[in-house]
Amino acid sequence: MSGTQSGAPDRAEPLLFELGSPGRSGIDLPAPAGCATRLGSAERSTGIGLPDLDEATVVRHYTRLSRLNHGIDTAFYPLGSCTMKHNPRLHEKLARLPGFADVHPLQPVSTVQGALTVIDELARWLRILTGLPAVAMWPAAGAHGELCGLMAIRAAHEARGEARHRILVPDSAHGTNPATAAFCGFEVEKVQEGADGRVDTASLEAALSPDVAAIMLTNPNTCGVFESDIQAMAEATHAAGAYFYCDGANFNALVGKVKPGDLGVDAMHINLHKTFSTPHGGGGPGAGPTVLSAALAPFAPLPWVLHEDGGQLRLLEQATGPAGASFGRLRAFHGQMGTFVRALAYCLSYGREGIRQVAEDAVLNANYLRSALADTLSPAYPGPCMHECLFDDSFLDGTGVTTLDFAKALIERGFHPPTVYFPLVVSGALLVEPTETESRTTLDAFIEAARDLAARAHGAEAGNFADAPGNAPRRRADETRAARSPVLRWKPPAAERG
Ligand SMILES: *Cc1c(COP(=O)(O)O)cnc(C)c1O
Predict the structure, then answer these.
(1) CA geometry: angle at 353 spanning 267 and 229, to 5°?
(2) Ligand 1: residue whose CA is nearest its atom 15
(3) Does pTM surpass 0.85?
């Protein structure tokens, strides 16, 4: 079938090495006359093994490759936890304005007052939306924001002369949480979930002790449910002298409705590339600004953006003056300018009321899917969900079809599969996040496809699932082998034979 209608790609693309042929060229210049080489014995006598190509072949190759991607601009992309929402073109246009796109990080501060104002104004929105007094704008992504928060927490404990070495992380946490804690030199200790998908407050309290530096929780958590005891957990954490890190990647379920500061959060990264559009599925840059409570604010990373008396903005680059306790620099330069512009444009175009509706619609859409599919797929937990709905694989019991098969079959229908096998606390998880930007028509099309596939899994065609997707150039990659022994180098066929 053709890929155009379903969005599914229909043919493999050769490598540029395979497309080249000797003598082809993309330039048309005569060899320079009377120009002797000065390389002497360092001059190459053989080719360097790059293919000879003309320009049209190269352009077509990359254009075809770009069409093999399933992107948010191609079709529905209900990836749980990662929030693949529509990216308004107006924001793209603004990010490309030369004053933002061409700004250089080493320009004198007096020439980049506009760019600093965008950073400062976005920081103000993030502080208001989270109810927390400080924000480090520089982290390059969510996981980097986690690192920023944990480094501030470590600096705060060290400033008090306390060497706390443990971090409590629930089973359902995103993998980056324990990874960041370990990377930062902490010991990671798991906390149990209850049967309702929420962290068990009693187990958390039991695990708190004088060597716990922080807890890392996600709210709504990665089971798509709201941690309703979060304030009690924050109080218990603070009473034990520890800090409360909240993974804010799911902030789109709460934004404009709940301020994490009111819940007792001390540090939280915000994935601008999830909550504030600019989805990262295409590998584009993200940004993970990290909001900090009053207790952690003095330790925020450099540089600090400060207001001068004359209304100018300045960058404090050294750990001196008000930034005397800063834990230092987190990265070179000043974050992802293009992502800041898009995120501020997002805030300004929705406005205060509109941002609240973002959260309401995200939750409404997820619950629409959940209730429409509740009798077909198997919801992992009873009751309504937040911005994403979690199913387990019990609806496939006895069919021989797995969650992976089901996800691959959705590709045939032109949908990007939801997140699968995460969170780990549920068997064969399917985590579906529609986002607020999808219309009811799109949701209905997805519901219909999922219902039809579920019916087929229970019918005579169950055996076909093992081969799905039938219409994609790469169907079932051996992902373990691809990760363990990647083939990173093309060899010419002759060399392979030799
Ligand atoms: C995406 C995500 C992260 C990590 O964010 P990156 O920007 O990918 O580093 C952390 N936690 C949760 C729950 C996420 O969904």
Answers:
(1) 40
(2) 81
(3) yes
Ligand 1 pocket member 218 (CB < 6 A): yes
Max intra-chain CA distance, the chain: 84
Closest residue CA from atom 5 of ligand 1: 142
| Cis preceding-peptide flag for 220 (omega within 30 of 0) | yes
Pocket flag, ligand 1, residue 222 (CB < 6 Å): yes
CATH (residue range 89-345): 3.40.640.10
Q: Where are the domains of the chain?
A: 89-345, 357-484
What 3-state DSSP class applies to 147? Answer: helix
387 close to ligand 1 (CB < 6 Angstrom):
no
> In CATH, what class is 357-484?
alpha beta
- Tens of pLDDT along 183-235? 999 999 999 888 888 999 999 999 999 999 999 999 999 889 999 999 999 99
Separation of CA 275 and ligand 1 centre (Å): 11
User: Residue 18 C-alpha to ligand 1 middle, in angstroms?
Assistant: 37
Write the residue with the smallest CA distance to atom 8 of ligand 1.
142
Question: What are φ and ψ of residue 153, in 5° steps?
Answer: -65, -45
- CA–CA dist 277, 258 (Å, integer): 19
State pLDDT tens for residues 376-415.
999 999 989 999 999 999 999 999 999 999 999 999 999 9
Closest by CA position to 154, among listed 325, 335, 294: 325
CA of 447 to the centre of ligand 1 (A): 26
Counting from 1 in the atom list of ligand 1, the atom nearest the Cα of 82 is 15
Residue 214 forms beta bridges with which residues? Answer: 167, 243
